[in-house]
Amino acid sequence: KNMEKWDAYLANGQKTGRILTRGQSIPDDLYHLAVDCLVQHVDNDILFVQRHLEKEAFPGFFEASAGGSALYGEDSKQAVRRELLEETGLLPVELTFSKRTVYKDDNCIMDSYLALVNSPKDTITLQNSETISYQWVAKEKLKAFLETHPVVPRHRLLIETLFLDD
Fold first, then answer.
1. Which of 80, 87, 98, 124 minimizes the number of CB atoms within 10 Å of its CB?
2. Through-space distance between the first and last CA atoms of the chain, rounded to whole angstroms
3. Could you read off the pLDDT of 63-94 as tens digits, one per residue?
4. What burial class does residue 119 get, using C-beta atoms within 10 Å of its C-beta: 0-12 exposed, 13-18 middle, 19+ buried?
5. pTM beyond cutoff 0.85
């Protein structure tokens, strides 16, 4: 992971041709591209993975997504496919763009997707030192799951927005 390179973008999503390096500070007017995706099985269940207990942010919390930074030369769809494969071993049968959010404070443009998968549910591969367990949750059990499990706040909000706004 050392010296990971990123494309530099303007806030409007235009590439600048400049290169950013992970861990170095990003100039105020430049952004790097990150992706995340919610994983839904064709039977409608949602995938939650549990973060490693050694993680700095939200150790042991569940997250409803795979994701990370787009590498130099990658567009957001390529990045989301790679991250999903790295973090879960899954390949999506369908990838639907849901929204782009610009986080000024983090110099980050976040593209969110919904990944539809059709793999057997026990074929998830956990990522070493990143995740420790996973759980498929049926849509009708989401509310109960959110009430009984620690879920990363941003993902909790996402789930509520997408599935629980009745």
1. 98
2. 42
3. 998 889 999 999 999 999 999 999 999 999 99
4. middle
5. yes
Quickly tell me which residue has 């919390």 as its tokens.
61
Secondary structure in 3-state letters for the chain: CCCCEEEEECCCCCEEEEEEECCCCCCCCCEEEEEEEEEEECCCCEEEEEECCCCCCCCCCEECCEEEECCCCCCHHHHHHHHHHHHHCCCCCEEEEEEEEEECCCCEEEEEEEEEECCCHHHCCCCCCCEEEEEEECHHHHHHHHHHCCECHHHHHHHHHHHCCC
Number of neighbours of residue 116 by Cβ within 10 angstroms: 17
6: its two tokens: 């990123």
* pLDDT, tens digit, 9 for 90 and up, residues 122-153: 999 998 888 999 999 999 999 999 999 999 99
Pairing of strands 66-69, 5-9: unpaired
Dist. CA 42–CA 27, nearest whole Å: 42
Question: 82, exposed or middle or buried, with CB in 10 Å at 0-12, 13-18, 19+?
Answer: middle
Six token digits for residue 151: 């879920």
